[in-house]
Design goal:
The protein has 6 helices and 8 strands, in the order E-E-E-H-E-H-E-E-E-E-H-H-H-H.
């Protein structure tokens, strides 16, 4: 199973980095597989720790992918690092082992502390749409343009039916990023 989360990690100097990332839930471990190059990868290898943040605020996912990484943080309790201040829950991780790979190294971690901060009340379809659009934005350079457009058209249905102000703001950030990508890469956008 893969959970869509926000990973917070810190450099050895204590500089926090916030990144959306799918985390694989294994039997007794969490597997993080960042694409290279990756600040998260560098930080986890240097400090042997990270924090998984579980949030329903999709603006954090969209924001990180569109240059908005200044989210309030609190110190972690058992690992060197920080967690999102407004996260619903978090899990503090310790790196157990890692496997090298040119594209996506595998970081196997164990949970050393977990805490719940607020109840999870479920996702609406607009939140799902923003999460999926954020994943598309993270892969604009890898996916065919017709796939991106068709998936966005489908995701827009759920957004239009159930979005609140946070989802609309996050969607707008993502669409601005896609528009900028299209302008910067007219050859890719014209190929369908």
């Amino acid at each position: 199973m893969i959970r869509e989360t926000i990973i917070t990690s810190c450099s050895p100097q204590g500089v926090a980095h916030i990144a959306p990332m799918g985390v694989h839930v294994l039997d007794g471990e969490m597997l993080i597989m960042p694409f290279r190059p990756s600040t998260t990868l560098d930080n986890v290898l240097a400090t042997r720790s990270a924090v998984i943040n579980y949030t329903d605020d999709v603006r954090v996912f969209a924001g990180c992918l569109t240059g908005r990484r200044d989210w309030p943080l609190h110190p972690a309790e058992r690992v060197p690092g920080q967690r999102l201040a407004e996260t619903l829950a978090h899990a503090e991780l310790e790196l157990v082992r890692w496997e090298e790979d040119e594209l996506r190294p595998k970081l196997y971690c164990r949970v050393v502390h977990e805490a719940n901060h607020a109840p999870f009340r479920g996702f609406n379809r607009a939140q799902y749409s923003v999460l999926e659009a954020a994943i598309l934005v993270s892969r604009l350079h890898m996916l065919p343009w017709d796939k991106i457009e068709s998936e966005l058209a489908y995701l827009r249905i759920g957004l239009d039916k159930t979005a609140g102000p946070n989802e609309l703001e996050a969607w707008g950030w993502l669409m601005d990023t896609i528009d900028a990508f299209k302008r910067a890469n007219p050859d890719k956008a014209s190929r369908t």
